[in-house]
Design goal:
Shape of chain B: globular
Distance between the termini of chain A: 10 Å
Number of helices of chain B: 9
Largest sheet of chain A: none
Number of strands of chain A: 0
Helix content of chain A: over 70%
Low-confidence stretches of chain B: none
Largest interface: A-B, 18 and 22 residues
Low-confidence stretches of chain A: none
Distance between the termini of chain B: 61 Å
Structural class of chain B: mainly alpha
Oligomer: heterodimer
Chain lengths: 77, 292
Amino acid sequence: MEANGLIYIAGALMMGLGALGAAIGIGNLGGKYMEGIARQPELIPMLRTQMFIVLGLVDAVPMISVGIAFYLLFAVA
Amino acid sequence: MAAGAQTGSEYIKHHLTNWTFGKDPSDGVWKIAETAQQAQEMGFYAIHLDSMGWSVALGFIFILLFSIVGKKATTGVPGGLQNSIEIIIEFIDSNVRDTFSHTNKLIAPMALTAFVWVLLMNLMDLVPVDFIPQIATYIGVHVYGMDPHHVYFKIVPTTDPNVTMGMSLSVFFLALFYSVKNKGMGGFVGELTLHPFTSKNFLIKLILIPINLFLEGVSLLAKPISHGLRLFGNLYAGEMIFILIALLPLYAQWTLSVPWAIFHILVIVLQAFIFMVLMVVYMNMAHDTGDH
């Protein structure tokens, strides 16, 4: 029971902290992208590709933590 | 969910176990693992038949499709298939041109292969989680007389860390090869030992070598690991959530699986694209000789 409780807390921490960090990162990224395209709309296609690359890099971290957290919660606990 | 006797966590574990062929340590016979426990004990020299089979088959589909379209390509009005393949090739070509600033004939075909192959392997994630494993179980039970709980079949090769780490390690070794080829052994070692901190004084330079080697070594080794684990983690998380949705009663599944599948289309393409871009970036770093 004790160990199971710790696994639930571990899963919650993983998902929560992973999502927190990535949300700050993606918020920053999207804000800067908006500023950039407002200043120079002709750069939209180039900036969009670059933004999606970084988005994918940042997005990977919370996705991985969600996957591992679900594995812990449903398959281990 | 056909197997009613299974609990949720058994169902998940069953879906996350590969069809493994290896040497059983208890009696030393090469055979197909019957339980997840056995598959785990087979250790390093075991081979995942399902991951290998699907990835090789999808690779052949890619090669055949592209070669057939390439041979039949017309300069007149192209059909839909030729159009879409031209779009993919132009997309890869422009991306490689933007990111890769040196001359190497290998990079663009390699980027195309990596992108389309990873995309096809990721696309297997959109096949319903029970569909092909159930067919495999049916064949296993009725043709080979196996216990239905001992038929393991995982159809998404990129949810197997062995596949993704294999690909990222191949890229890593190729990058090492081109580093040594373009910079020379001295240049490569120099980049590892003299790079972030440097000094005019020879003695201080000598003292800084271990610090530089540590920092550069960590960043060198982190590249293939994060490259492979990023793809694996995303697809594993996606597959995991599809499996969890499959635990719901049948009438309720579509409310969650449809939105998740639509969102997952973005993830699939994005991760294939990122795998390709990172590969080209690492290759570009291997060709940067430093004299700008």
